[in-house]
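From the shared-data thread, chain only:
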Amino acid sequence: MEDFFRKRTLTIYWIVLVVHCVFMYFELPYIAVTKPMFVPLLLLHILLNDHNIGSPAGKFVFYIGLMLSFLGDVLLIVITDTFFLGGMIVFLFVNLFYSYSFFSLTSFRIPRVLPVLGTAITLYFIADFLFRFLGDELGSYKLPAIAYVMAISLTVLTAVNVAGVEKYRTVALNYLIPGAIIFVIEHIIVALNKFHLGRSNNLYIAGIVTYCWTQYLFVKGVLKAYL
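Structure, as tokens:
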């Protein structure tokens, strides 16, 4: 039975995502059942493939961040202002935990500062454009949004930094960096949908697909880097 789930957990993960998207498209209430299944399936995949979950610390911290994602998913099942702010706070900490995990693989070093610096400048211009575009639509969310942008930027920068080490370069290029980029795209979709486009159902679907894709890439990348 264990071998069965070890081979098929991620397949079940993608099937649940497809079912969830169908529920969202037809605006069925069953999304309250499918959405909380994503992170537990990823955690099950981890449990079946990592026999030393508590060590090293960087890997364990990533797992804590992933578990916090479950709380964020639950809070965002119903999109109200209170739950949305709560979800933002939870995912801010998720990004901090993920950043610590990536940073634990390799700290920032002067010789490989250019890719990180170039990424930071790019992220600054993207964030500046979004804040100018959304303007007053952010309302009371402006300060939380600034804090959140800083947190997710740290995730991206630490992922890019990992590519500077030859040992982890393939993992970073195939999993961590694509995951971080898709994570940014997912948050842009969520921000536009929440503050500008009036909560389009199609954008909700795009947001959940990119979110699940990100979490999958991060989990695969961390397992390959740390095991």
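Residues 160 and 177 are 6 Å apart (CA to CA).
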